[in-house]
Amino acid sequence: MRLPSLLRRTPFRLTLLFLALFVAAAGAILAYVYFASASEAQTRARTDVETELAALTAVHRTRGIDALNQALVERTIRGGPYLYLLTGPDGKIVTGNLSVMPFDLKEARRTGTGEWSTFRLTSTDPDGRVQTRRSIGVIMPLAGGDTLFVGEDIGGIEEYLSRLTQALWGAMALVMLLGLAGGLYISRRVESAMAGLNRVVQAVQDGDLKVRAPIRNSGDELDELGQGLNVMLDRLEGAMASIRHAGDAIAHDLRSPLTRMRAKLEVALIDAEAGKIDGVDALGIALDEADHLLKTFNTVLAIARLQAGGAPDPKPMDAGELAADMAELYEPAAEDKSIDFSSEVETGLMIEGNQPFLAQALANLIDNAIKYTPAGGAVKLRARRRSSGEIEYSVTDTGPGVPEEDRERVVQRFVRLDNSRTEPGSGLGLSLVTAVAEAHGGRVVLDEGPGAYGGFGPGLRVALVLPPAGQT
């Protein structure tokens, strides 16, 4: 049979385990207390009996049998815990407060030394009830054939130990009941808290990512688990939203390039049918548009991946070395367009990032600057450490620049300003740079360039600001 839910809970089982350990420990302590007390009582009784026996044998040795008999009579009349019995050479009782000798007289006389033993003493209490009490005593043969027995009733000690044992067992039973009740209470509390977490898990399994675990503000491990679960759900909901947004964005963003591609293919088809171009040229136009569309798709997909999951596989790298490589790569392209290209690169600019994505972002910035800067202008690439400790890539040109009111809009996908309509492109360059910056925990800042001078300007300065290594 399957146990009830409450009995299968870990807190209840732990309660039972601790109760079992407590009972075992308490039982061991109780046994030790009982046997230690009994042993101590018996040892003390033996000492008392030995002291009393030594006193009586001294009376017999110095004053004779009659004085011993007189001392026993006085002690018996006076009362006390001691038991006395004096027998003559013939084994008959002379005096004492016992009616029967607890020992074998022949064996005692044969050994000639004191023989100890415990025995049960039967007596009648004032109410007439028969009692059997534990006693301890020693028998000592005397000169002349007499035998002296001295003992002590230790039944009172046994009664005390019995009452102590009963009290301890009662206390143990009470503790067990209270512990069991506490275990049930704690199990119900934990079961209630866990039921809330289970409901959240079940809701998430059913597809509801907006549900959150309740927090009781108790600061215990269940609250920590609930907070961790909520953080995980926040990130999961954000990731799912990013994935959905990425899919929607790709579908939306590719609509215009596909429409443009279809229009160009349709024009090429019409021209080919009219004999203005041949079929090879029409296929070339189709391939060019397909390549452009594929490049656009890869860029949009890269942006979506960065926004959904951040920079993949970040590693420590020197931002200055990357800037130097990019300057060396684009310097010939700037010379071909008669643009003065320069760079100012610091070394030891350590960051944690994905080098291919950062290289692509820098390439987009430099390519845009060269593309929109007229011949005779200038482009400058810098890599430096800001006073705040952040690492900054910046590309400054003397092109037409971007009006201040358009700087927030120009970093969006497929946004192209009027002065760039004549240049090839898809409007995704700055969008990718922004996605790379955000994926690395940084940002993109657009400012005016060096200003209008000699027919050039006002220019544009685009800065890619990244946190240093260890602060991403």
From TrEMBL:
One Gene Ontology term, aspect cellular component: plasma membrane
Keywords: Kinase, Membrane, Phosphoprotein, Transferase, Transmembrane, Transmembrane helix, Two-component regulatory system
Subcellular location: Membrane
Entries under InterPro entries matching the protein: HAMP_dom (IPR003660), HATPase_C_sf (IPR036890), HATPase_dom (IPR003594), His_kinase_dom (IPR005467), HisK_dim/P_dom (IPR003661), HisK_dim/P_sf (IPR036097), Sig_transdc_His_kin-like_C (IPR004358), TCS_sensor_his_kinase (IPR050428)
UniProt keyword Methyltransferase, yes or no: no
Residues of the Histidine kinase domain: 249-470
Name of the protein this chain belongs to: histidine kinase
Species of provenance: Brevundimonas mediterranea
Gene name per UniProt: senX3
